[in-house]
Every structure is written in structure tokens, then in C-alpha cells.
Amino acid sequence: MSEDDTQNPERGERIAKWLARAGVASRRDAEALIADRLVTLNGKTVETPATFVAEGDAVLVRGQKVGTAEPTRLFRYHKPDGLVTTHKDPQGRPTVFEKLPAGLPRLVSVGRLDLTSEGLLLLTNDGALARRLELPSNGWLRRYRVRVHGRVNEGALAWLARGITVDGVKYGPIQAGLDSRQGTNAWLTVSLQEGKNREIRRVMQHLELHVTRLIRVAYGPFQLGTLPPGAVEEVNARTMREQLGIRSAAPRIQRGTERTELPPEPEAPPRARAPRARRAGDPHRTPWGAKPRTE
Questions:
Q1: Number of folded domains in the chain?
Q2: Domain boundary among 219, 249, 270
Q3: Is 114 annotated as catalytic?
Q4: Residue 188, SS3?
Q5: CA distances from 94 to 5, 78, 232, 260 (A)
Q6: Catalytically annotated residue among 29, 57, 89, 114
Q7: Which domain, by its residues, includes 13?
Q8: pLDDT per residue over 211-232, tens digit each?
Q9: pTM of model > 0.90
Q10: Which CATH number is 171's domain given?
Q11: Residue 252: other Cβ atoms inside 10 A
Q12: Which of 176, 80, 75, 74 is nearest to 119 (CA)?
């Protein structure tokens, strides 16, 4: 993280980031608003994005007062197949952000999942946090369940731990193991740190395996768990503090009750103790987007 991105309580934070957290626009679009001289700070036109907003400052965009920026928030989202991880798609395909449940702040994704990939996607209202969580230097493993078609060579899977070069692209170590096999179809568990574009699909194709389903089940300490497809759940304040060192407001959403239909994991990693369930009938137990169970 650069010095410019480090928040100084006395100086405040850069106005483009402040506007993004306030839900006005993305950081880049906020900079465009500043360039068009549409932003004022304490009655003066903002000339440069290198302007800092402190507590109590009055910010106006197009003459309209902007409310206080929200504290940093982080959400787990179960991305379904068939959505593009972008705000706008030139081909007109449905996007993750168009399909998010109502009532959420403006969010950006931590990395991406491609059109046909499913599973855990982290979303945040803080672009600086998103960039920080994407860095391979965090050492966070991204873990996937991968269904493949073809003949699995377990020796070749083991060799992936040494890294591999495919079509001139060098990929770092990949941990891959066979979980189950039925005929020419198999389920693998694949873990990696870097996560280059379509990395798993390209590496599996190099091993003459065709990926027919790809589900991300973990991103660092964050797990997909039983979050239903299309649902969103806010990461609680304790996890934000312990895992990211961020003091955040308490979440408004707790765990859902509907289970996700995923293939069983043979050796699930140790999981933190789940928070105590709320009383029956508490509406906050259901994540955004989760559908009630039907008989």
C-alpha cells in the first residue's frame, strides 16, 4: 500500500477515494468529476484528486451535498454461472453487479471469476482494500472444486506443485488432488496463490482435461460455506478486525439457512467456530438474495 493510500487522521483521505466510499462513483469516475470541475470542498472547486477530505468538511458534487463516507465493508457473494464480473459489459451480457440484491452500497470485486465460473466472490465498498486483497504477496490460497472430463494422471497433478509454463505463460505452484472419479469424469481440489486469467482452465487443458465446472470455495480465510447462489452476506466486524486489521461497523446480515448444493469435500480444512445463531424468526438471519426454503 502506498503512502498516498494510507489514511492520516489529521490530513484525512484523498477525495476520489472518499467519494467512492460515499457511493457517488468509482474512484476513476470521481477523478473525472474533479477534472470537469464538478466537485467542491468547503465552497471551493476541487482542482486535483490529490485533495484531502477531513472530518467535518463539506463536499458537494454538482451542487448536491454528499453524505459521510461509509466505513469499509466487505461481503461474501456466491456468484452463479453466467454472470460477468464487471459493472458494464460491452457485449450486453448480465453482470454480477446488475444481479446483486437491492439495499447494498456501491461495491467493487476483489479479483474476478469468469463467465462460467461459480462460487465465492468478495465484494467491498473500498477500492484500496480490493487492491490490497488481490496481491499475491498476501500468501492467501484460493481454493476451487473443479470437475473435469478426461483421464486424470495423478502424477501429472503432483508435478503442478513445481509450477508450469503453458503457451509461454509461467504459472506458480498449484496444489491439485483427485477427490473422486466416475468413468471419465472426476472432481479435483485445486489451490493456488496467484490466480492468473483462466489459469485453472488453461493448465487443465494442458493436461488434456476439459473443465466442465469450476467453483471457488475459499479465498484466503473467507469460505463459501453454505451461502446460496446469488446471495450476499456481510463479513462481521470481528473477522474484519482479526483478519484485516480493520475496525468496521457491525454487519446487518447474518448467515443464511439454505444449503448450497456443492460436491462434498473429502477433507475440509479446520473452520472457525460459527457465530451463535439468532432467535428463530429474526429476519437478519437470511442473507441478501437468499430465497426461503419451499416444501
A1: 2
A2: 219
A3: yes
A4: strand
A5: 32, 15, 17, 22
A6: 114
A7: 7-65
A8: 999 999 999 999 999 999 999 9
A9: no
A10: 3.30.70.1560
A11: 10
A12: 80
